[in-house]
Design brief:
The protein is mainly alpha-helical. The chain is 75% helix and 0% strand. It contains 14 helices and no strands.
């Protein structure tokens, strides 16, 4: 949720630069809560349909370790969908096309027959548009109904999310391959995915300079994208070195990609805190509590990989409920 909330706030801030009227609190609250409920519903549905690959990648722990049953997760998804329907009525009319698109994309991403998460290229496009684009657009539309201009401002973040997503597929490549899930990295390989992350980040940086800097001399987006670009370029060099030797280092690749994902997420969250300082009172406790909980419950260094090879065996798992 942290990246989605961050991009929402960045979209809100971007539109506020040109707003002549005060921001409507109802639109902000309704749009943000509706988007959150949609993404929660989508995340739960994805856990159900990605259970096999999640088990191999040591993810989706509540289902893959039998803590909750599939029925429980489905019920939770339905409840979040109902909550999204309530908050949808509170959102501004200009926000609703993006919110409907978020719901449609979330369902198409996990559910057959489309199941975009298992289609090379489409998994990348779905994540880039869903987080960097739609979340930003919902925030932007809380202030301005100019959808075209909002998406022009969102494009740098679309590229940034795409670059970040490629590293998440690098982290999952082994389990995805063994489960038969054909992600972008399964299709093109780890080295090419790392290289394409640099290309996407560079494209986003160029667009940020063209739109943000030249339009209103706002260095905010360019500085954020430049930070991401440097991180992805360093990650590419390290991954290329790790996979080009006689004994490729899987651990080094995973460590590097995990660091790239965490860096990009931290940069976006930091940018959102700069925009709205009160966001820090949400992000910091949430990350600290998550790290503590995941370490104690699952043996994981959240949001990184397992703390140890046998992490999945740590702790007891009560019967599904």
């Amino acid at each position: 949720m942290i990246p989605a909330w961050s991009f929402f706030l960045l979209g809100l801030r971007s539109a506020s630069l040109y707003a002549s009227e005060p921001v409507a609190t109802r639109a902000v609250t309704g749009g943000l809560f509706c988007l959150t409920a949609i993404l929660a519903c989508a995340y739960l549905i994805n856990q159900v349909f990605d259970r096999k690959s999640d088990a191999l990648n040591d993810k989706g722990h509540y289902l893959t370790r039998g803590i909750f049953s599939t029925r429980t997760v489905v019920i939770m998804a339905v409840l979040f969908f109902a909550a999204a329907s309530v908050f949808f009525r509170m959102s501004a009319p200009a926000q609703r096309p993006a919110l409907v698109a978020a719901l449609a994309l979330s369902l198409f991403y996990s559910l057959p027959p489309l199941r975009l998460c298992a289609r090379p290229g489409f998994d990348l496009l779905s994540n880039a548009l869903g987080y960097g684009g739609i979340a930003f657009a919902v925030g932007f539309a809380a202030v301005s109904p100019d959808h075209l201009f909002g998406w022009m401002r969102a494009l740098p973040y679309v590229f940034l999310v795409g670059a970040t997503f490629l590293h998440t597929t690098i982290l999952d490549v082994d389990g995805d391959r063994r489960s038969g899930k054909i992600s972008t990295t399964v299709k093109i390989g780890v080295g090419w995915s790392a290289l394409w992350s640099v290309v996407l980040a560079a494209a986003g940086t160029g667009w940020a300079v063209a739109v943000s800097w030249q339009a209103d001399r706002d260095p905010f987006a360019p500085l954020l994208l430049i930070g991401g670009l440097v991180g992805f370029f360093v990650a590419y060099l390290r991954i290329r070195a790790a996979v080009s030797g006689e004994t490729p280092s899987t651990a080094e690749v995973e460590h590097t990609s995990s660091g790239a994902v965490q860096l990009a997420t931290a940069l976006v969250a930091l940018a959102a805190v700069v925009v709205e300082y009160r966001f820090a009172f949400v992000v910091i406790p949430l990350v600290l509590l998550s790290r503590t909980y995941y370490r104690a419950r699952f043996g994981l260094n959240y949001p990184g990989p397992s703390a140890s090879p046998d992490a999945s065996a740590q702790g007891s798992t009560p019967p599904p409920r």
